[in-house]
């Protein structure tokens, strides 16, 4: 098939790589304009652009697709279908109508649950037992189109947003490759979403990453995992910010934020109910450290308090 691909981050790059490996013709790749990144804040190509250039694929980076004059390269691609994965630009109805088989979105949740920008983090924060990949026929709404296929994926107790992202990216890549021949043969039945079951996955804010020790340990544990690797759950110790990268619920009681026990393997901190074992920490300006390394330079004693 001739596939017009639109995507930007690593999640999308996995799907593009799989489509290329499956032998599909990719006449054009759309991705976001290069953004400043790194210490020097120099423009950096997106993972999708880097992969496309490595395979010699044509790349376009429009800042917007709202104006019809920006659609010329899409028409010229003469694509059978457009595959969209975390692209980051709104596709007007005129763009959705260009490919003869429409536009298919790879979404990292089991729709209609967790429509929107942050489905992976929201699923972990909510304590969901599973998530998955939905391949959806795109329409003018926000992740509201009819579903073409869905594949569930369990959320493990230790999953972070990073680990779950990687597993979902691989699942999405497999699912989109499997869908293409079925779509071409007309074997796919589009199933409308149940609006009554829809939930919205709002974009993550840095303010949400502030740890509130008055909450139950299980909730704070989900917060730590949902915000790993970005933006990182954070607390304050002795007036200095500390990021918590790994933790696990534990038994214990005390005043919220109180250090209950200190060992090389974990620092146990009381929560609103239960306790949390802190396993990997990072002080401002320092690297992420396991507990033994952190305590070597930052000794803690029972009775101290995280805020």
Task: Tell me about this structure.
The protein is an alpha/beta fold and 307 residues long. It has two domains: 2-201, Rossmann fold (3-Layer(aba) Sandwich), CATH 3.40.50; 206-297, Roll (Methionyl-tRNA Fmet Formyltransferase, Chain A, domain 2). The protein has eight helices and 17 strands. The chain has a seven-stranded mixed beta sheet with strand order 5-2-1-6-7-9-10. Strands 12, 13, 14, 15, 16 and 17 form a six-stranded antiparallel beta sheet that branches. Helix 1 runs parallel beside helix 2 (47-54), helix 1 (10-21) packs parallel to helix 6 (161-184) and helix 5 (119-125) packs antiparallel against helix 7. The model has no long low-confidence stretch (mean pLDDT 96).
Biggest sheet character = 7 strands, mixed
Strand numbers in spatial order across the main sheet? 5-2-1-6-7-9-10
**Strand content range:** 25-35%
CATH superfamily of the largest domain, by name, is Formyl transferase, N-terminal domain
Overall pLDDT score: 96
Radius of gyration: 22 Å
Q: Segments where pLDDT lies below 50 for 5+ residues?
A: none
Q: Which fold name fills CATH's third level, the topology of the largest domain?
A: Rossmann fold
Q: How would you sum up the global shape?
A: elongated
Helix and strand run: EHEEEHEHEHEEHEEHEHEEEEEEH
CATH C-level class of the largest domain is Alpha Beta
Distance between the termini: 56 Å
Task: Please tally the β strands and state the result.
Answer: 17
Query: Helicity, in percent?
Result: 25-40%
